[in-house]
Design a protein that fits this description.
This protein has five helices and 23 strands. It is α+β, with helices and mostly antiparallel strands and 363 residues long. It starts with a helix and ends in an 8-residue tail after the last strand.
């Protein structure tokens, strides 16, 4: 019986010792088995991210100088046109009242001119006999010329209402709206039969089409206020277009707004990036894109993953192997970072190994 108790005690002690080595000593084993990363040479780019779209530098709204309704459309959206090429025709569409008033005004002006013409013969006779003063004759001449101009004006207005074209002072005004520039029709905003309000001093007029020269494009977007203080005009940028994921588009930062905007409870600043024609990608107005403005770049420097660095009291530390399953903490001097990789300025050499941080267990 005593032997059985003794063997049971020895077995229990053995289990305790085994458990101690298995669980109690595992921490050092885990530390020794931590993955290692090597110090290598690489490139680090500090970037500021902007979110926006591709837009033409100048977008033109095409409008008509005459009123009416759209009669014919000669160019559709996506069409390339030269300056002066017809875009659409505005067919005169006067109301019955407008047409009646135009005809009546012409008749009244003609009656006034006929009377002035009859009176002109008598005035010429009187001035020849010195029976009226020169001033009275000059006043009559002014009235006669005004009557003739009023007739011409009313005749031209009636002609414009009826036919949609008229020639004034050697310049032909017609209802054919022509392209103001060489470029593409981006958008057609009217259809045949739609009413057209003319562009005048007092009204903006109906937008018929949107046009732009697609050779001069911009990235227009916003950047967070945290990054805007590090940016300046002239910095290079890399643009990723959502619809063209494999294309490489580059540009130059040309404008940083002086005034911030509130966007989804964040403070952002609008920026513009000029895209040169050398880019071979076929870009379209309205493409969504992300731009990375390159603030600073270093090539062929010592780098390690930033995740292995511990920052404490304005200093940076890493753990390095110290031989025989031991490790030690080493202070290093860091440089440029892109939030994933960080430059090692002092404290490590190329080829040195750095331990990963131990993974914290969730209890």
């Amino acid at each position: 019986m005593k032997k059985k108790i003794m063997f049971s005690s020895i077995g229990a002690v053995g289990l305790v010792v085994g458990a101690f080595f298995l669980f109690g000593g595992s921490k050092k084993g885990d530390d020794a088995a931590l993955p290692r990363v090597k110090v290598t040479k690489g490139n680090i780019i500090d970037k500021a991210l902007a979110v926006g779209t591709i837009e033409p530098e100048n977008e033109i709204s095409v409008k008509s100088k005459v009123s009416g309704a759209v009669g014919r459309i000669f160019a559709d959206a996506g069409t390339f046109v030269r300056a002066g090429q017809p875009l659409l025709e505005v067919r005169p569409d006067p109301t019955p009242l407008e047409l009646a008033e135009a005809k009546r005004n012409l008749q009244l002006a003609q009656v006034d001119l006929d009377n002035a013409s009859k009176d002109k013969v008598r005035q010429d006779t009187l001035v020849a006999k010195h029976l009226i003063s020169d001033k009275d004759y000059e006043d009559f001449q002014r009235h006669y010329e005004q009557s003739a101009l009023t007739v011409s004006l009313n005749h031209e207005r009636l002609q414009l209402l009826e036919s949609g074209r008229v020639k004034i002072g050697g310049m032909e005004i017609e209802s054919i709206v022509k392209a103001p520039i060489d470029g593409f029709v981006l958008k057609k905003t009217v259809e045949v039969g739609d009413p057209v309000t003319p562009l005048t001093t007092y009204q903006e007029g109906t937008v018929l089409m949107k046009m732009a020269n697609m050779d001069r494009l911009l990235f227009k977007g916003t950047v967070d206020e945290i990054d805007v203080g590090r940016m300046k005009e002239g910095m290079p940028a890399e643009i990723k277009v959502g619809a063209l994921p494999t294309d490489k588009v580059t540009g130059t930062l040309t404008k940083i707004s002086l005034k911030a905007e509130k966007k989804e409870n964040a403070t952002v600043f609008p920026i513009e990036i000029a895209i040169p024609r050398t880019n071979n990608s076929v870009l379209r107005a309205g493409y969504s894109a992300n731009a990375s403005v390159i603030i600073r770049q270093k090539d062929s420097v010592l780098v390690i993953p930033e995740r292995v660095v511990t920052f404490r009291n304005d200093s940076a530390f890493v753990r390095v192997p110290a031989g025989e399953g031991r490790d030690e903490e080493r202070c290093i001097k860091t440089g440029l970072s892109d939030a994933i990789t960080i430059e090692v300025a002092e404290g490590l050499r190329e080829g040195d190994e750095v331990l990963e941080k131990p993974v914290k267990k969730i209890e």
